[in-house]
Amino acid sequence: MERSLTLIALFAALIAALGLIPKFTLGFGVPITAQTLGVMLCGTVLGARRGGLAVLLFIALVALGLPLLAGGRGGLGVFATPSTGFLIGWPVGAFVCGLIMERSRRLPVAWAAGIASVLGGIVVIYVFGVAGLMRALDKSALESLGLVTAFIPGDLIKAVLAGLITAGLARARPASLLSRG
Question: Rounded to two decimals, what is the model's pTM?
Answer without folding.
Answer: 0.95
